[in-house]
Design goal:
By secondary structure, the chain is mainly alpha-helical. The chain contains two helices and no strands. The chain is rod-shaped, with a radius of gyration of 36 Å.
Length: 88
């Protein structure tokens, strides 16, 4: 089968061979560009995921600090109420 293909190529005119070669080169370049585009899209998605994870971690830290702050404020208010209820 490879010999039949080679024989067919040998019988082609030079213009046809150039056209065939340019077509194959174009197909390979298209495939390479598509791979590069997919790789770039994957890298962009991974960067977005890292950014989202960083924001999520930041939100968790802020939420924890707010929870701690509100607990401290509640304890201080309780102490204030108890202190005002005690006779001097």
């Amino acid at each position: 089968n490879a010999r039949a293909g080679a024989a067919r190529l040998l019988q082609m005119r030079p213009d046809e061979l150039r056209d065939l070669i340019s077509l194959r080169v174009q197909m390979l370049e298209t495939e390479l560009n598509e791979r590069e585009e997919r790789r770039a899209a994957i890298e962009e998605a991974m960067a977005a995921q890292r950014l989202l994870d960083a924001r999520r971690q930041r939100a968790r830290r802020i939420r924890r600090k707010v929870n701690i702050g509100s607990s401290v404020a509640a304890a201080m208010f309780t102490c204030l109420v108890v202190a005002t209820m005690l006779p001097y």
